[in-house]
Amino acid sequence: MSEQNIERACTTILVGKDASIDGSTMIARNDDTFHAVAPHRFYMHPAVHGEKGRVLKSYLNGFQMELPEDGYRYPAVPNVDYQKLGYYDESGINEKNVAMSCTESTYGNERALAFDPLVKDGLDEDCMQTAVLPYIDSAKAGVEYLGSLIKKFGSPAGNSVLFGDKDNVWYMEIVTGHHWVAQRIPDDAYVIAANQVAIQQVDFNDHDNFLWSEGIQDYVEEHHLNPDQAGWNFRHIFGTDNEKDRHYNTPRVWYGQHILNPELDQDPESSDLPFICRTSHKISPDDIEYILGSHYNETPYDPLGKGADADKYRYRPIGLNRTQNSHILQIRNDVPAEHAAVMWLCIGYPTFSPYLPFYTNATDTAPSYSDVSLDFNFKEAHWMYRALSVLVESNYSHFVQDDLDYLKECRQELRAQIAAVDAQAANYSGEALTAFLTEKNHETVDMMRTKTEAFMGRLFTKGITLSRLTFNMDRNL
User: Fold this and answer.
1) 10 noted as active-site residue
2) Rounded to an integer, what distance in angstroms lies between the CA atom of residue 63 and that of residue 18?
């Protein structure tokens, strides 16, 4: 695995508005990198107006493109060392309340790639978010705009991209140098995907729910790529189905579906797990947080559990130490649009660290998030939450219940904070509202730092009593 494609291990969750607990749309993903230590920062790109001649350049493959003169404000979670590792703006919601998460690496098969190979200097995932999110007004427009860029420049890697707005959630899979398909997730459905082509039957007569690259049907027919006697299954035509998939990819999808649909009896190594799923359980951010931080909890496959080693290390878990940020991009429909967009962001291990809610109608982020060092600095949120994660895992059996209680308290306090801010937001509008939400985001950061520092202090104190460097004797000796 080269450093030029370091985002190759992500897990994706998408939720339609009728499948969620409050009528919001949600797109979510773990950004898992090749390196365990790869600091990320969280900051706000300002809007641009009438700026001619701006050029986006990749530090990884030399790709260049001229950017439009005007672009919307949006938050991003890029690499700190972008000249070595690439930009990777990763995730955000622009000021038009359009969400994008970019990207989950996805692999086309050798049959399809033989006739449309990847384009070495094309638009790759390190620049994709920067090239698209500031310039789109809807989720569907995001698919169409990115599709036009792939047609023009080609793609040097297989990638899946998530888009959402208040009504729609789209999932786009780019599988060869120029070919892709995107599907709108039904309002009453959810999707879990993990580094493997996931979309199944494509209806080319349904332009409301499917989009695709120009000429893809002729391409498949000309090169005899469809292995099925009937239908047009994108997964079968373009995807992989191998031993790595069965141990690295499909078990993650299986576990997520198991959590949301526990009544289903499915094989974690099945190649036929469904893409579009429905459940009677209305999905909340809590559910998504649990899945993104999961490690096959309460199964024999849990690497932190008590099963046999052959089971504990059989499958790659969802939450990893290599998860640099985990996010839920939520567009709500029960509050005014001006404060409907919330970005839930976790920058520690999602297994042990909280997701903080940030209103994206804001002008900047707290310095502890936006100014991040390559070396450890406890004053910075990235390093503080990762230090918390290492501390909990270092004495897991003794600290895990404390951490679960801490995370439960965080969820309760943060949701109360969101409700309070929503209520107060009615007193503001325009730039005053943006300033108010920016201030409240900073307050959330400060509140959680105080809470987390106190919690870590309790764990350190408890850890002192657990040392094996102890010896009990008659106190008179």
Assistant:
1) yes
2) 40
Handedness of CA 195, 26, 173, 35 (dihedral sign): negative
Please give the backbone phi and psi of residue 29, each rounded to the nearest 5 degrees, phi first. Answer: -165, 145
The rounded percent of the chain whose pLDDT value lies above 90 is 94
Q: What pLDDT score does 475 carry?
A: 65
The answer to whether residues 26 and 329 touch, using CB atoms and an 8 Å cutoff, is yes
The structure tokens listed for 239 are 């995807």
Question: What pLDDT, in 10s, does the model give residues 452-462?
Answer: 999 999 999 99
- Is residue 254 within 8 A of residue 268, CB to CB? The reply is yes
Q: How far apart are CA 323 and CA 320, in angstroms?
A: 5
Length of the chain: 477
The CA distance from 320 to 313, in Å, is 13
From the list 10, 102, 277, 346, the catalytic residue is: 10
Q: Characterize 118-152 residue by residue with b for buried, 16 or more Cβ atoms within 10 angstroms of its Cβ, and e for exposed.
A: bbeebbbbbbbbbbbbbbbebbbbbbebbbebbee
Residue 41 near residue 381 (C-beta atoms within 8 A): no
Which of these, 153, 150, 470, 310, lies nearest to 161 by C-alpha position?
150
CB neighbourhood size of 229 (10 A): 5
